[in-house]
Amino acid sequence: MEPIYRIIFSSIFFLISFTSLAQCPGGQVEVTVAVETDSWGYESFWDVTPAGAGCGNGTILSFGNIAQIGCSGAGNQDATGGNGYGSNTTTIENLGCLTIENCYDINFVDDWGDGGSTFTVTIMGIEQGPFVGSGVGNVFNFCVTVPFINNVAVKSEPYTYTKMPLSQVGNIIKDASIISVGAGNVTGANLSVQVFKESNLLYSTTSTPQNVAAGTTSNFTVTGFTPLETGTYSVVYTAAILEVDEDFLDNTYSFTLEVSDSIFARDNGINDAGGMGIGGNLSGYMGNIFELNAGEILSSASALIDNSTFDISGKTFEVSLFALDNSGVPSALLATSESATIGGINQWYDLRFSPPLSLSAGNYLLAIKQDSSYQQQIGASSSISTAGTCWVSWTNQPWTLAETFDFHVTLMLRANFNEFAALSNLEKSSFTIFPNPAEHEIRLSDIYVGSTLEIYSTSGQLVHSEVMKSSNASVQIEKLEPGMYTVKLTSGSHVSCAKFIKN
Question: Which pLDDT belongs to residue 288?
Answer without folding.
Answer: 96
